[in-house]
Write a structure and sequence with these properties.
Blueprint lengths: L4 H6 L4 H18 L2 H5 L4 H10 L10
Length: 63
């Protein structure tokens, strides 16, 4: 899996928020040794970003 640059370019919301969400999701994936990461040659950040852009994983900002 390649980092979803095309989806990142088309993203219209707050880029800082999704960057933070991707960073946190990548950390989670690396800690739990997720099978999806293994299927994607260990590309944790790309997997996390793809999950966020395809809405496989949701995120929210806590106030």
């Amino acid at each position: 899996m390649i980092f979803p640059l095309e989806q990142l370019i088309k993203f219209k919301d707050n880029i800082y928020e999704i960057t933070c969400a991707a960073s946190r999701r990548a950390y989670q994936l690396s800690r739990i040794d997720d099978e999806t990461v293994k299927e994607n040659d260990g590309k944790v950040v790309s997997t996390a970003a793809q999950q966020l852009f395809t809405d496989a994983v949701q995120y929210r900002i806590e106030q």
